[in-house]
Amino acid sequence: MTIKKRVNQLFKKYGTTDPFEIAKIRGIPIIYRPLGRSYGFFTNYYRTFTIQVNEDIPYKKQLYTIMHELGHITLHPEINSAFLKANTYYMTDRYETEAHEFAIEMFYNQEELKNVTIQEATEEYGVPEQLLIKKFYT
Known about the structure:
This protein is an alpha+beta fold. The chain has helices at residues 3-14, 19-25, 59-75, 81-87, 93-107, 118-125, 129-137, and strands at residues 30-33, 40-45, 48-54. The two termini are 19 Å apart. InterPro entries: IrrE_HExxH (IPR010359).
């Protein structure tokens, strides 16, 4: 199943496109705290998910980070890519790319974000430019 279909299923199941509302309905707390250079990550502790978001980054980047972490939780909840990256030689690029693609699908389904340009998305929200170009030009 494509990532776009997974995102649309999520919207249909929860009756909203709002990532905050989806997290709330799914019982996933969003915790804001200082995370240094990291935008955020998710934890899975005994099948209880939490999204941690850097409180020191602008709201727009926090919003995209939440969408990205919902992508990880939805697509591969059993994978702790932060742990794998820090403690193994396992390549996590595929998981990160998929989470970004998921977040981009969520992003452009938000009514207030539908007309955001690629430049605005990359500069203000932190969306990877190469994945936006892939979405819109391939």
